């Protein structure tokens, strides 16, 4: 990208880069390795990918797109988006993540003003702020994924270039 690349495109491209890293962290792992958690919270690589799929759904479809969408769990089960169910595997979670990211791109394509705001709770949040937050959220969880992957098999680093 050069300095003349529009802001929305710049943010979207960096977010796509981090989305690819998220999924790449699962490459070559067994189901057992992808589900393995080294921490008491139960965080696993597959759980990170599932969680980020639902974060995409929340910010892009529910908030920016102002759509009614479903989420796993609820007030009595707030960690359902992290938990890998017996009927879920790498393939289903990666497909969920890909579908949510595709839908996020579709919603973003319809946005022309990054200063436009959406209500989140008692606050108005700009589309720009949501994009920056999504970039931060995805990159932060990629840091977690880096550590978990290194503990699994010693692999480190980012995905190959786009």
Any overview of this molecule?
- With about 160 residues, the protein is mainly alpha-helical.
- Helices cover about 55% and strands about 5% of the residues.
- It contains five helices and two strands; from the N terminus they run H-H-H-H-E-E-H.
- The protein has helices at about 5-25, 30-35, 45-65, 90-110, 125-155, and strands at about 115-120, 125.
- The chain has a two-stranded antiparallel ribbon.
- The longest helix has 27 residues, at about 125-155.
- The mean pLDDT is about 95.
Helix content: 55-70%
**Strand-residue fraction?**
under 5%
Summed over residues and divided by their number, the pLDDT gives a mean of 95
Number of helices: 5
Would you list the SSEs in sequence order as H and E?
HHHHEEH
Indicate the structural class.
Answer: mainly alpha
Give the N-to-C terminal Cα separation.
12 Å
**Biggest sheet: strands, sense, closure?**
2 strands, antiparallel
Brief sketch in words of this structure:
The protein is mainly α and 162 residues long.
């Amino acid at each position: 990208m050069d300095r003349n690349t529009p802001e929305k495109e710049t943010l979207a491209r960096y977010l796509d880069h981090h989305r690819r890293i998220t999924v790449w962290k699962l490459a070559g792992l067994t189901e057992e390795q992808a589900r393995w958690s080294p921490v008491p919270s139960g965080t696993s690589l597959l759980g990170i990918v599932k969680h980020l799929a639902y974060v995409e759904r929340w910010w892009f479809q529910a908030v920016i797109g102002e759509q009614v969408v479903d989420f796993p769990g609820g007030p009595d089960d707030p960690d359902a988006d992290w938990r890998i169910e017996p009927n879920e595997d790498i393939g289903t979670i990666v497909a969920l993540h890909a579908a949510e990211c595709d839908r996020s791109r579709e919603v973003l394509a319809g946005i022309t003003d990054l200063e436009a705001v959406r209500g989140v709770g008692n606050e108005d949040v700009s589309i720009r702020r949501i994009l920056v937050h999504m970039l931060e959220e995805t990159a932060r969880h990629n840091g977690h994924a880096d550590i978990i992957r290194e503990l699994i098999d010693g692999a480190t680093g980012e995905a190959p270039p786009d």
